[in-house]
């Protein structure tokens, strides 16, 4: 039974996170809200980095950028402007004062400690005091047809013979260098896919261009280096067409999970229990060491054993398993 009167909900505000990967993990919340309140106006407050996830998305009606570096006077004006909106429901995924300052009819309570739960489930659980949270497909609108076609055109310029649902999408980057598997490992992986006759597409943001240049020095093969060439929504469109996604703990990994593509996730210092995904389409590869997952901002050892010692053979074997499952 709903704790809210659905007829009273016409204007919804969601306060979401800032980093792109974290924002993608909150998209099931938007999907569920849209299912419950299809006619409501949904606005989102998001940091500058996360804005591109929502731009052109049909799941939300308005994107409100919030820069935490604003002065206190600017923040006061920001809140005053929001008060005029008269929101009926505020969903706060950041534990801010915004729901209390705006005095909405309904609001999510402050988060309780939810140790042992994945971040995706933690975000959905914020809705439980108000709604029945269902385990369902994420219907968030990650890309338009034009955004997907734009990404495919960029791919076809590099590999004219690439076929939909046949190419392998590889994301060698991550928000932190500590979460990145080795370039030599990714190089061996790309060579393996070449041996299988597979096209390989490299994706990542513009700060990771150097990774693409290093991997571009592999032996000749059907490789499209699109690192720094795609928007996050164009990348999502390619993820949806990939036969397999291979990624570190990153935004691209989360896209693979939310778009339900076969995904091999490479974990080092971070926790797959928090950020990974279980299911037939998903596999996690990590070295189980005494120090992992440390979830520390810097490695305390002489070298990063959790990823530097992770052999390419482990990734290759796991990729082969998922590809065989997909073709059977």
Uncertain segments of ≥5 residues (pLDDT<50)?
none
CATH hierarchy: architecture of the largest domain? 3-Layer(aba) Sandwich
Q: What is the number of independent domains? A: 2
Strand numbers in spatial order across the main sheet: 8-7-6-9-10-11
Give the class-level CATH name of the largest domain: Alpha Beta
Q: Which fold name is given in CATH as the topology of the largest domain?
A: Rossmann fold
DSSP summary: helix tally: 13
Q: For the terminal residues, how far apart are their CA atoms?
A: 41 Å
Can you count the beta strands?
11
Please write the string of helix (H) and strand (E) elements. Answer: EHEHEHEHEHHEHEHEHEHEHEHH
Cα gyration radius (Å): 21 Å
Mean pLDDT: 94
Main β-sheet description: 6 strands, parallel
**CATH superfamily annotation of the largest domain:** Glycogen Phosphorylase B
**Which class of secondary structure composition applies to the elements?**
alpha/beta
Described by the principal axes of the CA atoms, the overall outline is globular
Strand content of the residues, in percent?
Answer: 5-15%
Helicity, in percent? Answer: 25-40%
Secondary structure layout:
Blueprint: E1 11-15, H1 20-36, E2 41-46, H2 51-54, E3 62-65, H3 72-83, E4 89-92, H4 98-102, E5 106-107, H5 119-125, H6 145-158, E6 168-171, H7 183-195, E7 200-202, H8 209-215, E8 223-225, H9 232-239, E9 244-248, H10 251-258, E10 263-266, H11 272-275, E11 282-285, H12 305-308, H13 312-327
Parallel strand pairs: 1-2, 1-4, 2-3, 4-5, 6-7, 6-9, 7-8, 9-10, 10-11
